[in-house]
Amino acid sequence: MDKTDLLRLLADGELRSGQELAELMGVSRTAVWKQLQKLEGLGIELETIKGAGYRLPGGLELLDETQVRAALSPEADALLQTLSLSLESDSTNAEAMRHIDAGAGSGWVFSTEQQSAGRGRRGRDWVSPFGRNLYVSVIWSFDGGAAALEGLSLAVGVAVARALDEVGMSRASLKWPNDILVDGAKLGGILLEMSGDAAGPCSVVVGVGLNVAMPDTVAGHIEQSWTDATRAAGRPVSRNALLAALLNHLLPLLSGFAEHGFTGWREPWLALDAFAGEPVVMLMGERRLAGIARGVDDRGALQLETGTGVQSLYGGEISLRPGA
Ligand code: BTN
Predict the structure, then answer these.
(1) How far is CA 295 from CA 172, 180, 307, in A?
(2) Ligand 1 center from residue 127 Cα (angstroms)
(3) Cis (ω within 30 of 0) for the bond into 252?
(4) Closest approach atom of ligand 1 to CA 208
(5) Which one of 134, 166, 252, 299 is most buried, by most CB atoms within 10 A?
(6) Contact in structure between 266 and 296 (CB atoms under 8 Å)
(7) Whole-angstrom Cα distance, residue 85 to residue 255?
C-alpha cells in the first residue's frame, strides 16, 4: 500500500473515514494517516472533516496508462515506445534528458502529476500543481542536426492546437513561436530542448505544458494572462483524453518531420496565427523592433513588416503594440 493506492481510493471525491480507508487497504489507521500526510506533502488539497474522515474536494482524475493507450490511434500506438506516468517529477523535460543519456530514444514519453521544477522558455518557471494540468515530454531522435529541426517547435504548436480541437476547444490560436492561446490568454506552452550533436545525430525533447484545471490557489504565481482547458471549453476536460489526443497528433508529426520538415505545417500555422496583421513589438535582448506581424516563412522565422521592409526574425519575444 502506498500513497498512489490511497489517492486512487479518494479520487472520486467521496468522504471516507480513516477506518474505512484502513479496511479497504488492509493496513492500520496509523499507516493510512502517514500516507495522508505524504499526500499533503505533495501539495494535494485534502479536506479533513473532524470525526467523519477525508476527501479530495471535487475529486481528481489521475493519469492512467490503460485509458491513455485505449484512446491512441493505431499510428500513435505503433510509434509510442514507452509511456512513463509518475506522481511527481522535477521536470519531465529534465527526466527525458536524463533518459537520453541512459539510451532512451524516439517514442519515449514522460508525463507526471506534478513538477517541482517545471521549466518554461527563457529560464522561466512553469507553474505545475498536482493532478490538474498536463506536463508531457516526448523524445525523438534526428540525424540531420539542428538544421533539420527548423520550424519543429512551430509545427508542435499546430499539433497541440489540433489535439485541443479534438477534445472540444476549437478556439486555440498560436503566438509566435509556439504559445497556445485562447481568447488572448495563455493556455499552454512548448519547450524544445536538444541533446547531442548540433551538426549530426541528436535527440530532441519536446515538452508540452497545458493548463487543464488550474487551481486559483496557485494561479497567482503566473506572471502573464492565463486560462485553462476547463474555462476555455466551458466544461471539465479529461486529462487522459487530452494526453491521448496530444500523442495522436505529436507522434506522427515527429516521425514525419525529418522527411518533410516545416513544409506542410506552415499553412496550418498561418491559419492559427494569433497576431496576423497586428501591430506588434519584438523584444530581442535590449533591442525593440516595432512593425506589423506578417506570419512566418518556410523556415518558421517571423515576418515583421517595418518601415524599412520585411525582416525575418528567428528569436525574440513578441507582444501586441498597445494603443497602435
Ligand atoms: C513556455 O514557457 O511557454 C514553455 C513551457 C513548457 C512547459 C512544459 S511542462 C512539460 C515540460 N517539462 C518542463 O519542465 N517544461 C515543459
Answers:
(1) 16, 16, 17
(2) 9
(3) no
(4) 8
(5) 134
(6) yes
(7) 22
